[in-house]
Amino acid sequence: ERILNNNEDLAAHNREHFDAAGLLCINLMSAPGAGKTSLLERSLLDLSKHWQCSVIEGDMVGELDADRLRKLGVDVSQISTGKSCHLDAQMVARVVHSKALDKLDYLFIENVGNLVCPADFPLGEHKRVVLLSVTEGDDKPLKYPVIFHNCDVVLFTKCDLLPYVNFSVARATQYVQDLNPRAQCFAVSIVTGQGIDDWLNWLSSAYLQSQ
Amino acid sequence: ERILNNNEDLAAHNREHFDAAGLLCINLMSAPGAGKTSLLERSLLDLSKHWQCSVIEGDMVGELDADRLRKLGVDVSQISTGKSCHLDAQMVARVVHSKALDKLDYLFIENVGNLVCPADFPLGEHKRVVLLSVTEGDDKPLKYPVIFHNCDVVLFTKCDLLPYVNFSVARATQYVQDLNPRAQCFAVSIVTGQGIDDWLNWLSSAYLQSQ
Ligand SMILES: Nc1nc2c(ncn2[C@@H]2O[C@H](COP(=O)(O)OP(=O)(O)OP(=O)(O)O)[C@@H](O)[C@H]2O)c(=O)[nH]1
Ligand SMILES: Nc1nc2c(ncn2[C@@H]2O[C@H](COP(=O)(O)OP(=O)(O)OP(=O)(O)O)[C@@H](O)[C@H]2O)c(=O)[nH]1
Ligand SMILES: [Mg+2]
Ligand SMILES: [Mg+2]
Ligand SMILES: [Zn+2]
Ligand SMILES: [Zn+2]
Predict the structure, then answer these.
(1) Radius of gyration for the alpha carbons in chain B, expressed in angstroms and rounded
(2) Which mean pLDDT values do the consecutive 10-residue runs of chain B (211 residues) have?
(3) Would you state the pLDDT for residue B1?
């Protein structure tokens, strides 16, 4: 394989591997603690019954999130990013070349918790999903616009906490739509199960589209 | 003034200006939405009665946080960082050279919401304060260790939400102490006022020490 210098080329290269394997790759991004791993725990409980799933975890150090998912029997590859505040296509390419992808239906990539830099580093994913916790404030799409501008789905997470914070789902949805009319917004909660079916339905229709 | 290339030199230069003016400079860092601006709104309500305070706001785009503080009559300078996920000493130096510092007692810098890169870019501040919202999970010191390793204070924010999340203040405090024994931890809430007096007391003793 020729030397790929920039991130775009490497991302396109990863995408070739994903398409050859016939899997759907999802890049999950958010601020730290918005609920990416919790969403994966809850989603894979259902998805793993019917589909072959795998996860790539990106963290500065340690394997805390990977171990949470391994406890559920999920296959997880850990990427330690060190000082880097985001995953890049080269880090993912190393894993992609070492993993048997052909049996997979879904490959989830949990990015490093950061609402800025992951927006500029595509990894080869088919879909980009941003989680915004209702505890962070509904102004985040205005303050961190780039990541909301180029994503496919925005999940407003922890909606069981709405009674205790001054977050408006309607206002936040409007801010997202103004930036990115094609983005679909879902209000979800791991605690009450709100919106989880809508999210799982979106995943399966995204999968069917990618086939 | 000689050309200062690296961030450390520029930070030291900023510090010279801060010390010449006799002010205390605090760098506030956190994940997006942990409560930095809310803490400033609440703190400056008290501090501005007795002391001359000013704020430098760092955001990718816009002046949403600066305007929240200006509504309270606070003097605020806005730095727009564009694609950069953190403030650096050069951005701050530009403001420092354009502002009359000699009348100030406190200068707060609200950094871009990011738990990774701000850890590596000192700005010339005297004290580094990290906010960790109890809604983000108590594992954050383990997962994003660098910023917790080199700070003076950790504030556990939004403690009114503790009954609704599985965050342990004791566990999080232990994780911080393991990484950084000199850091002081406070549990605070803007809604109930919990811990705000302790935080204001810490600020005034830090100010006295810097004189
Ligand atoms: N109340 C409530 N808490 C939630 C929900 N989802 C996640 N949490 C809590 O939010 C905290 C962070 O959740 P994680 O799933 O670890 O978040 P993350 O985005 O994976 O965090 P990083 O990988 O460190 O960036 C934990 O304390 C979870 O228990 C939810 O729907 N409701
Ligand atoms: N329940 C509760 N909510 C809080 C508290 N402090 C802040 N919030 C809410 O948390 C959200 C974010 O607060 P901000 O002060 O804007 O947070 P920030 O760290 O300045 O955010 P960025 O500058 O965008 O990174 C807002 O909806 C606030 O109302 C608190 O003590 N309790
Ligand atoms: Mg996680
Ligand atoms: Mg703010
Ligand atoms: Zn960065
Ligand atoms: Zn100077």
Answers:
(1) 16
(2) 73 97 98 98 97 98 98 97 95 95 97 96 98 98 97 98 97 98 98 98 96 89
(3) 46
Beta bridge partners of B130: B29, B154
Residue in chain A closest to B165 (alpha carbons) equals: A161
Any A CB within 8 A of B162 CB: no
Helical residues (DSSP H) of chain B, grouped into ranges: 7-21, 36-50, 64-70, 89-96, 140-143, 145-149, 169-179, 196-210
Sign of the C-alpha dihedral, residues A136, A142, A145, A149? positive
B145/A60 CB distance under 8 A: yes
DSSP characters for B5-60? Answer: -SHHHHHHHHHHHHHHHT-EEEEEEESTTSSHHHHHHHHHHHHHHHS-EEEEEEES
User: What's the token pair of residue A154?
Assistant: 């925005």
Nearest to A32 among B115, B161, B165 (CB): B115
Q: CB–CB of A157/B54 below 8 Å?
A: no
Task: Please tell me the predicted confidence (pLDDT) of residue A5.
Answer: 60
Write down the pLDDT at residue A95.
Answer: 97
CATH code of domain B7-210:
3.40.50.300
Sort out which chain A residues have CB atoms less than 8 A from B61's CB and list them.
142-143, 145
Question: Closest approach of chain A CAs to the CA of B196, in angstroms?
Answer: 19
The set of residues, in sequence order, having a beta carbon less than 8 Å from that of B3 and lying 6+ positions away, is none
In whole angstroms, what is the distance from residue B100 CA to residue A101 CA? Answer: 60
Instruction: Determine whether the shortest distance from the Cβ of A169 to ligand 1 is under 6 A.
Output: no
pLDDT digits (tens, 9 = 90+) for B146-201: 999 999 999 999 999 999 999 999 999 999 999 999 999 999 999 999 999 999 99
Question: Measuring CA to CA, how many Å separate B67 from each of A146, B46, B64, B74, B206?
Answer: 21, 19, 5, 9, 27
